[in-house]
Amino acid sequence: MAQVINNSGHDDMIHDAQLDYYGRRLATCSSDKTIKIFEIEGENHKLTETLRGYALFTPFRPPFTAHPKYGNILASSSYDGKVFIWREQNAQWAKVADFNLHQASVNIVSWAPHESGCLLACASSDGQVSVLEFHEGNWLHVIFPAHGQGVNAVSWAPAMVPGSLVSSKPELGAQRRFVTGGSDCLVKIWDWNREDNTYTPTVALEGHTDWVRDVAWAPTVLQKSYIASASQDRTVRIWTSDPAHPNEWRSTVLNFEAVLWRVSWSLSGNVLAVSGDDNKVSLWKENLKGEWDCVKWIEE
Fold it and tell me: Which of 14, 218, 219, 273 could pair covalently with 226 via S-S, beta carbons 3.0-4.6 A apart?
């Protein structure tokens, strides 16, 4: 059963919402230039904090770090190209860092898996991606061009290499790898170079014929890697790769009647949720033949 918050307290369109690591807090952002934080307990919820006064667009995805080891940290982004980092201390939220690295709207921000470090990737309409890192008490950053016509989405890969759990020779250390989607219709995969702290595009995946609105790297670390990409061309592409050939990807195309906006994997990485401008959400799962079946439509 879905829980509905009818009175969110927002005065304008809500752009995003996300639960924290434990599923006990919900953060929402709106065109009314506020972030609201709710406490969730069973079927009850309570508004506990409102962060005001900023030109928020798509503040968080997810709003909290993937793991509470770094404390309760929230990232927000906005049309004016700024990124803010918020932290809760003594039951009060305060802005602890702000970055003005981009020349256009920052469309999405994404926290890396905690094993990779306290890292935040930011995707902007100026065509660049910035990666912020909290290291030894300081915030560091790198910024680089990614998609010439603008970057709409970014999503980190799992810190563990797929197949390492069942491999006799597991990889050492956590990988830093992410995927981006752009207005150039491309999906790109980026790998980190430890020696000079740079990110290099290792794969450019072609197939979409319109803007790529969202990308999501599945959190599974079993035998294969999965990336989902959603596009204005009314398709979702599910890209798969095996550990033996990490830079070779094949795609399965899911066709829809509506323009698509978001894709999101379940925590186990085996169910994909897709949403579009028809106000519908569909859930997809891979069968034993490697084909993707729609298992549920949600039209509430």
Answer: 218
Q: Point out which residues pair with 74 in neighbouring strands.
A: 64, 86
User: Long-range pairs for 159-163 at CB < 8 Å and ≥24 separation?
Assistant: 159/112, 159/113, 159/114, 159/115, 159/116, 160/115, 160/221, 161/221, 161/243, 161/246, 162/220, 162/221, 162/222, 162/223, 162/224, 162/225, 162/241, 162/242, 162/243, 163/221, 163/222, 163/223, 163/242, 163/243
49-56 contacts at long range (C-beta below 8 A, 24 or more positions apart): 49/93, 50/9, 51/76, 51/86, 51/93, 54/78, 54/82, 54/84, 55/79, 55/80, 55/82, 56/15, 56/29, 56/30, 56/31
Tell me, yes or no, if the pTM score tops 0.85.
yes
What are the tens digits of pLDDT across the range 238-263?
Answer: 999 988 888 899 999 999 999 999 99
In sequence order, the β-bridge partners of residue 133 are: 119, 140
Chain segment 71-107, per-residue pLDDT in tens: 888 888 888 899 999 888 888 888 899 999 999 999 9
Residue 50 CA to its chain's centroid (Å): 23
